Amino acid sequence: MTDRAKLGWPGQISAEIITLAFLTTIQNPSLNFASAGDLCTPISNSSLFYCSQLEADIKTCQQEHGKSIVLSIGGATYSEGGFSNASIATSAANNIWSIFGPIVPGRNVFRPFGSSVIDGFDFDFESNVQNMIPFANQLRSLMDADMVSTGKQWLLTAAPQCPYPDAADGPMLAGKVHFDAIWVQFYNNYCGVQSFIPGASTQNNFNFDTWNTWAKNVSLNPNVKVFLGIPGASGAGSGYTSGSKLASAISYCKGFPSFGGVMIWDMSQVWANSGFLDSVTEDLGGYTPSPSTTSFTSPATLTTKTTPPTITTSPPSTTSSPGLLGQWAQCGGQGYSGPIVCHPPYKCVALSVWWSQCE
């Protein structure tokens, strides 16, 4: 599998929700799963590919291990900008549903995961998008109708940056779309978990309280869960936190009724960081969400986010010349006041309003 993993409740020792990333275009659907797509076969007359290994893995994760598999739409390379009108957005949602949703006998459609059916969709947009609300609401409508007829639990999620309101997902999050959970990226931003002040009841930059207020007062779903998104290793641009400080931050977040667990970017990072996943699981121990505020039919979990195809999992380069920034270092973004020149051959690339890095 390729993306994020989520942890939430006591007794879990591994990710429970796995997000595959990314569906990089929507109107003419295409996928990029980085190295996980190496064994896939191109589908004729389509920009998609068929992945027999992922087809088998999805079933194994779901049926043998009780995991939920969610497909993430967007990513840093998504450039369609959404849809020109609501009608096109609704039609696109119907098409994506036919490709990844329940199998309809007699329907001739390309299916990258074959007979496997995922458990939901995640939105990870890094720039402004148009008419995404009707797209999201049509997916929600299709999922709800299927749940009524089959009993299958579907998830609709989003991964906003921690600055509030999120520049890309803000319109959808403004009480317009019924999300089950959001994986807030508390990294690569000034409000990341690295800004948490242990022992302080009032936080200056770390703003989980702001997202809890959103969950209570703005979200269309009053039972939505907010996950603490963190890096699984130092390969992220900034925000990697571990040890007692991370434990303290998790403990602080547990005090909010919307808290759903921890999201970790990304699976490859956390698996290579020996002991980190176990420590986060231990930090989450003893937390039991209130049944009246839980929107999942089964416990939500620790989640990890797959590496975007254009970003490697290598740690930041340490070979830059004095005064020049190494690979993956931050070089720009709203509120950033540090150096902006990258060591050749790297260039400063904007990944969001809040973050640019040397690539």
Automatic annotation (TrEMBL):
Enumerate the Pfam families for this protein: CBM_1, Glyco_hydro_18
Please list the residue ranges annotated as the CBM1 domain.
Answer: 323-359
UniProt EC number: 3.2.1.14
Keywords of the record = Carbohydrate metabolism, Chitin degradation, Glycosidase, Hydrolase, Polysaccharide degradation, Signal
Cite the GH18 domain residue spans from the record. 1-287
Presence of keyword Cell membrane: no
Sorted alphabetically, the Gene Ontology cellular component annotations on this record are:
extracellular region
Question: Region Disordered: which residues?
Answer: 288-322
The record's listing under Gene3D superfamilies reads:
Glycosidases
The family line of this record is:
Belongs to the glycosyl hydrolase 18 family.
Protein name, as recorded: chitinase
Organism of origin is: Venustampulla echinocandica
Recall the taxonomic lineage recorded for the source organism: Eukaryota, Fungi, Dikarya, Ascomycota, Pezizomycotina
